[in-house]
Design goal:
The protein is an alpha/beta fold and about 300 residues long. It has helices spanning about 20-30, 50-60, 75-90, 115-140, 155, 165-185, 210-215, 220-225, 265-270, 270-275, 285-300, and strands spanning about 10, 35, 65-70, 95-100, 145-150, 190-195, 235-240, 245. Helix content is about 45%, strand content about 15%. The structure holds 1,4-dihydronicotinamide adenine dinucleotide.
């Protein structure tokens, strides 16, 4: 079934270039009106310019779409609220939010300053919070919303020199998990994208011949899917070079020790079983973990819950 977004309004942050630009173009192609947000700074977050966002707006309009540019720094809640206000005044609703804006301050942890750590958290995690907070009440009121956070394999699995970025990128997964639960009743679906693409952010990592293979255009259909009416919720879609997969968090079944049995050494001795993936499963909410452990403890002690 063709995914159409006619009449819908999407905000794409950091859409002046790279993945944000191709996300914005892809959503516009499906009929969504787009707020092209971009601070227009350097890769490390310094400076700003409105040129990039305006160029993407011009591209969308040239393709027959509708778009407006916005230069808010996503880390600034007041500017973000004004951006959402701008969209509401122009189009009266916000259906889709793609939290994509991002910067890098890579350093080994030994050399990582608190400022480098804080700035990356401010843009990726607080920026995602700010934009989501600013649209949340609107989406609840509309009883419709699609929100995508941008995570990264650096957060999901780790990457040398990116402790700040990895922490921020895993932070948005926690935000997604909770907002999925809080939004479900209002038809707000919340997902994350963990992409890889040849952009300014990765130009010194990707070899030149891989740049074309890892085109951002090969990721953005995933954003259209996550923005559509039939989007899933609480999924981490990983995407690069035209491939798509889902990253999941599993918990092993685990093992219970009675107070008599319990010791650090007992855990060490049973480590293989505790760590065994045999009966691992995805938990649907934090409370399921306490429930599982409560049931194990009660069963071991012969208590009926
Ligand atoms: P990029 O550097 O090409 O584009 C990021 C855009 O965000 C820039 O246009 C920049 O001006 C804008 N931006 C930065 N800080 C901002 C702020 N405070 N407020 C508003 N706009 C701001 O980067 P790329 O590669 O397109 O990355 C997009 C997203 O995907 C980022 O969240 C990044 O962390 C994530 N990502 C990218 C990967 C890749 O392989 N390119 C890998 C994993 C995640």
């Amino acid at each position: 079934m063709t995914i159409r977004l006619d009449g819908q309004v999407a905000i794409v942050t950091g859409a002046g270039q790279g993945l944000g630009r191709t996300h914005a173009l892809a959503l516009a192609e499906r009929g969504a009106k787009i707020v092209v947000n971009d601070l227009g700074g350097a890769r490390d977050g310094t400076g700003h310019s409105s040129e990039a966002a305006e160029a993407v707006v011009a591209e969308i309009i040239a393709n027959g779409g509708e778009a407006i540019a916005n230069g808010a720094n996503v880390a600034d809640l007041e500017r973000v609220e004004a951006m959402v206000q701008q969209a509401m005044e122009k189009w009266g609703r916000v259906d889709i939010l793609i939290n994509n804006a991002g910067i890098l301050r890579d350093k080994s942890f030994l050399k990582m300053t608190a400022e480098d750590f804080r700035l990356v958290i401010e843009v990726h995690l607080m920026g995602s919070f700010n934009c989501t907070k600013a649209v949340w009440a609107i989406m609840r009121e509309q009883e419709y919303g699609r929100i995508v956070f941008t995570s990264s394999s650096s957060g999901l699995y780790g990457n040398f020199g990116q402790s700040n970025y990895g922490a921020a990128k895993m932070g948005v997964i926690g935000l997604m998990n909770v907002l999925h639960l809080e939004g479900a009743k209002y038809n707000i679906r919340v997902n994350a994208l963990a992409p890889a693409a040849g952009t300014r952010m990765t130009e010194d990592i990707f070899p030149a011949d891989l740049f074309a293979l890892f085109a951002p255009e090969a990721v953005s259909p995933g954003i259209v899917f996550l923005s559509g009416p039939d989007a899933p919720s609480r999924k981490i879609l990983t995407a690069a070079a035209g491939s798509f997969a889902v990253s999941k968090i599993y918990e092993t079944e685990g093992l219970n020790f009675t107070p008599d049995e319990l010791s650090a050494e007992a855990i060490a001795d049973a480590w293989e079983e505790i760590d065994s993936p045999d009966q691992q499963r995805e938990l649907q909410a934090g409370g399921e973990q306490s429930m599982k452990f409560g049931q194990q403890a009660a069963a071991k002690l012969g208590i009926k819950l």
